[in-house]
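Hi all, long-time lurker, first post. I run a small reading group and we've been trying to get comfortable going from sequence to structure in the token notation. Rather than ask abstract questions, I figured I'd post a concrete chain and ask someone more experienced to write out its structure so we can walk through it together at our next meeting. Sequence below, copied exactly:
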Amino acid sequence: MIILAVVSIALFYPQYFISVGDFKLSRLIVPLLQVIMFGMGTELSLKDFADVLRMPKGVIIGVICHYTIMPLVGFGLARLFNFPPEIAAGIILVGCCPSGLASNVMAFLAKANLALSVSVTAVSTLLAPFLTPLMMKLLAGQLIEVHWQVMIWEIMKMVIFPIIAGLLFHYLVRGKFKWLDKAMPIVSMGGIALIIVVITSAGHDSLVQIGGLLILATLLHNTAGYFLGYWAGRLMRFPERDCRTIALEVGMQNAGLASGLALTMGKLATVGLAPAIFGPLMNTTGSSLASWWHNREPKDS
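-- Answer (accepted) --
Happy to help. Here is the structure in token form:
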């Protein structure tokens, strides 16, 4: 509800979310993303990484599906809809990013395998500095100029370093300041909302021109991830809980990271447009799918 509200506000009143005086609000995106990733790190522990060793097949298949299905579907949709190059590159960029943080919450609500979900999110995120630039260079290199070395460093700054700091916080400080533990999820939620409102405002004109088609392409991208992820698990003869997990892990992307990368490219209003749509959309579809599964006990439980 909060995400849909901020998108609506940004569409109707974009002029208020572009700058305050001489300060451009887009400069807040990377720091906010670092805070969100720090929050993710505080919720992780070494036990989560031990789960990777306990269920290696599920984690490997989940990560492989994530970094093949979503980039290739994004590439296919960008070609099919014949969007302008920078808009098309944004769709591909979303597909090349790691799992979204919300996938863990959705897996819990969907009665899926939560340990597997956290493990796939963690591994796909740690691999992002290498796989995201590589996939972008291969699939979007003809649409925009991709400086993969720069992208590696930007992902390290936006994702890896804050997560490491969050892990250290988890073991050194967590529990000593109860108010801070309670505040981090709220701060993360506020950060996500502010990132979305700033990006939507920046891309308002492009969104008005091709918004309908881009929303359709993004919806197809998102739902194809759920569908293909689920049936990839079925083909591998995974239990129902694991199939649900892989579906959510494949279909839900870290749209915030895609937005941050679009900003560092200097193309927030074009490349950043698909991530701005994908974020609210995946939270809506993911919540709906999780709720539907929540009322249907896994047959093999």
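A couple of things your group might point at:
The longest helix spans residues 204-235.
Residues 13 and 201 are 8 Å apart (CA to CA).
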